[in-house]
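Protocol step 4 of 5: obtain the predicted structure for the target chain.
Materials: sequence only (see below). No template structures provided, no constraints applied. The aim of this step is simply to have a reference model before the mutagenesis design in step 5. Sequence pasted as it appears in the construct record:
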Amino acid sequence: MPTSGAYSQEDIQQILHIAIVQQVDTGEFSREQLLEIAAELGISPQLLQIAEQEWQQQQSLQRQRQDFDAYRQHQLRQSGIKFLIVNSFLVSLNILMGFGFPWSVYVLLCWGLGLSLKTWKVYASRGEDYERAFQQWYRRHQLRHFVSGWVGKIGRLLNA
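Step 4 output (structure tokens):
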């Protein structure tokens, strides 16, 4: 506890966070309670609204990142299935032809290396490569959403 009776902004945030987490109520606050808390802390309704909008944007971005991660994991599963199907066929073909030269092992190893690198890339969710891939996916996602919205509008106009 500070001896001067003054708290830094970080100290206040940590104390309030602990108090809110330990609250025995339902764990949820109403909008009115949020406004009351902000008023007691001297936070204007306008500043609270700006903070709330920023929080909503952060939540939206977090959901987009989760969708992106799920998309990448789905793509990886698809690649893994293709790997298993094709290499099972090639190894079977190699066995049926005889064990003279196990050429299918080279395909299996090379493709397996590529799949391993892709797996590492999918689960590495930090860094510039991840950000670049996310931004590219996000732009494509936004473009698809925009185009499908316009196609839907045109379709409704033509049907009307």
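Step 4 remarks: The chain has two domains: 7-46, 62-134. The chain is about 80% helix and 0% strand.
Proceed to step 5.
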